[in-house]
Amino acid sequence: MQDRKEFVPGTMGDRIAYLRKRKKLTQAQLAEQLGISAQAVSKWESGVSQTKRY
C-alpha cells in the first residue's frame, strides 16, 4: 500500500490555516481547543507571531 502524501502549503502560518480549514474550524474554535486566544491563532496564520519551538 502506498502512502499518500498530502500537499501542505509552505509557511507555518499557511499550514495552520490550511489544516484548520480542512477540519472546518474557525480561528476561535481552534483557539478554544488549544487554550489560547483567537488573536494568537490569527497572528500565527498571518505570520505576525511565530509558534514556540520546543
From TrEMBL:
<keyword id="KW-0238">DNA-binding</keyword>
<feature type="domain" description="HTH cro/C1-type">
    <location>
        <begin position="16"/>
        <end position="47"/>
    </location>
</feature>
<protein>
    <submittedName>
        <fullName>XRE family transcriptional regulator</fullName>
    </submittedName>
</protein>
<dbReference type="InterPro" id="IPR001387">
    <property type="entry name" value="Cro/C1-type_HTH"/>
</dbReference>
<dbReference type="Pfam" id="PF01381">
    <property type="entry name" value="HTH_3"/>
</dbReference>
<dbReference type="GO" id="GO:0003677">
    <property type="term" value="F:DNA binding"/>
</dbReference>
<dbReference type="InterPro" id="IPR010982">
    <property type="entry name" value="Lambda_DNA-bd_dom_sf"/>
</dbReference>
